[in-house]
Amino acid sequence: MSATVTPPPKKVNRIGLEVLSYKGGKTTLCAGCGHNAISERIVECFYDLGVQPWNVAKFSGIGCSSKSPAYFLGLAHGFNAVHGRMPSVATGAMLANRSILGIGVTGDGDTASIGLGQFMHLLRRNLPFIYIIEDNGVYGLTKGQFSATADLGSKLKTGVLNDLPPFDCCALALRCGATFVARSFSGDKKQLQAILKTAIAHNGLSVIDVISPCTTFNDHEGSTKSYSYVKDHDMLLNEVDFVPYYDDISVDIPEGEVQEVTLHDGSKLRIKKLGREYDPSSKFDALKALDEAGQKGEVLTGVFYVETGKQNFMEMLNMVDEPLATLPQARTIPAKAALDEVIEELR
Amino acid sequence: MSTVEVTPASSRSGEFQQPVVNDFSIQVATINGSGSQTANSVLMRAIFQMGIPVSGKNMFPSNIQGLPTWFTIRASKHGYIGRKKELDFLVAMNPETAREDVMKLDSGAAVVYDEPLKLNALRSDLHFYPVPFDKLVGPVCPEAKLRKLVRNMIYDGVVANLLSIEMEEIHKALFKQFGKKKAKAAELNWGACQAGYDYAAGNLPKVDPYRVARMNATAGKIIVEGNAAAALGCVFAGVTVVTWYPITPSSSLVESMIGYLKRFRIDKETGKATFAVVQAEDELSAIGMVLGAGWAGARSVTSTAGPGVSLMSEFIGLGYYAEIPGVIFDVQRVGPSTGLPTRTAQGDILSTALLSHGDTRHPLLFPKSPEECFSMAIEAFDLAERFQTPIFVMTDLDLGMNNWMADPFEYPTKPIERGKVLSAQDLDRLGGFARYKDVDGDGVGYRTLPGTNHPQGAYFTRGSGHNEKALYTEREDDYVNNMDRLSRKFESMRSHVPQPVVDYNPKAEIGFIAFGTSDYAVEESRDQLRSEYGIETSYFRLRAYPFTQDLLDFIRRHERVYVVEQNRDAQMLGLMRLEFDGPDIAKLRSMKYYGGLPLDARTVTDDVIHQEGK
After folding, report:
1. Which SS3 state, helix, strand or coil, does residue B23 take?
2. B4-211 has which CATH code?
3. What CATH code would you report for B501-611?
4. Tens digit of pLDDT for each residue in A240-287?
5. Surface of B (460-479) touching A: CB under 8 A
6. ipTM of this complex prediction, to 2 decimal places
């Protein structure tokens, strides 16, 4: 009687997983919060690239941003650490198991205020790790105080003006040793996707500062981190495109306009110049561009810096390839002869 | 030149005094940075090599060069290796402190001193041996800039002659100290030793009673610092992630560990390290890395002192509540604040046991010796993984930085305890798990490690409220259930932590409770109380917190129990107060010392006698 109904084939990625396998719990952040858009991009990018979700570990500190690892990659281990100290926890975990892909989500208070010390030391070590700053210039969870990335003269809802200069997390990252540095806007889907995918493929520390407006406490007239301000002042340094290593579609690109950077796994980052001369392997160019944009009140976004050849932290430490955490006892406990040797010396 | 002998009362005593053999203490007063450490170690080791039980205590300033430092060597035929309060033999090399050093001596003590200091004018009841160090050093050390360092070796020769320390043993100890690579320096120093010996032989008639004589009580033993022993323990426990921030007196623990790791933990085939050592930017980061690594399944450790533990406070609360293994060595020094950073104490007991905000309790282990630094390092890692919580090993500066005579460490034969960790196969079989569910009734849940190759392996770790399934919750019942389970877990630990060593004396009304390095003073004090006052005592050496049931039994079996500790506020007694009831607590008396020096027996004995009203 009834016709056989064939369910439509499920849409899966290259490792056979549906996008559902990349989602997390339901967000408890405010409607319209930029952080939710970032979580969505993370889900898409990990799905698109076919990363095994349970080979990922998520880290965060404390604050609204730091809640978000619960809202993506639900099949990955997560660690919501203490305020401003996520870098050390992530470093320990990555040292214990270097085969994991680590991603951290933090905020501007977590990174640039209480966590500035740990952030800067993380930069020095070039840990292979994705460090995302969901940057809205205010403390949301404590109801709207300025953070250390709030711009000079930016106004709080209460009318209070910020009279201290901001830290530019990208400039700090450039100065202190990160090997992939980019800024994006939670509202720029295409740019953020390309940057996130590059970070996933990059072997080293990626710092991505994403301007992510706080709709509740910092989205008003006079704020320099509101949706409208960022939309009006967003200045693209370049246009970026990511081509994964397993994708050999060749695109015709006019000579001279696009720079191609080959990443650790063979994937390619294509950077299209927009107007100005700019070399993404030059820290000097990057710092200059950031400085100029800052003076003009522009929000400069795009890829600022990529360095592919630098040793990562595990390589510097000359660690074995296997995870330290699960090395068999035979490899971690020296033989009795070793103890005898030491004892003999102490006699 | 003859010895200045100025005591009328004992003017003839030199020749007629009964010799005091293998039972005295030498104090060497020098200026730090002058190479005296080598001279003192050689002296100590030479006595050790003659088979005589010996201990060395370095009392040094928080400074690199130019401030006074004292080194005390005690030889004891009875095997007492705690500090001896009375000094018998002084080597006064530091002009700044010489006067005070001499004035502090008991009558009858001997003093070797730098001749120009004219110390003999200060007292008439001591035996003085003036030595012209500057005159002697010239011929043995042509290079003027080395003289400051070589000068100190001269007193080794002088002391060897006066105390009958065999020069062959000095030679052996000296060359061991310098090692094969520095044979030339050793020769230079040996020349200085000989010059000192010869000078004493020709010019200083022996007038004091102190001397050594060969024994056979150190055969098979080693000399080692507690920090090096702890470091070895970590290496033989299979440590994989080590983090630290330099702080006195714990730095040498990780520094020794780095040496041993590089020697024994580089894969032969690949030349790569089976460990990671990170010098962190501060102690907050050091403990953060330990917890991150422990969470991901590594055996992770950090080493610090009181100020570092204070900084770790918030993270330790996370470790307790999120249930993450990790090992922390607290090599205690005198606080509060910077305090006396190069003096010893047991002053972090209460604050560490309850470290962090909210309700927290942490297991503490109390090694007393290098042997226990080694064995408890191994036990600490097993406990951390078995109970998924930070474990503190509470040593102190005296144990960590001084040289101790010890028995060789026992190679661990037990397989290491990795705790309740579910594999992908386990998850297949179980079809999932609840991270904080008390499946076995011991309060300890099952965990998985990140990277477990299974779609049901993950859970979310957080310091905020969580239920059995590790999901966020603010519910009253979830919170209470979880905290109660953590209490049960703490209870379960009582039978797994290092058990006490109890010497129950049926004739004793008085009991001692002590822990860590107070042990040496307490054991010696018990002998003093028996031989000098006829007082019998029992002794309970506490080796861990949480306490075991035996502790309460011990208190109940005695009329009065002295809790001996090296802090002002009777911190261990305070911990007992949190657990025990009035009648038991009423039996406890406190014997406290907090002057920063290693506790000595006489101080314990005098205090107990005073409190006993005798």
Report:
1. strand
2. 3.40.920.10
3. 3.40.50.920
4. 999 999 987 666 666 667 899 999 999 999 999 887 788 999 999 999
5. 460-464, 472
6. 0.96
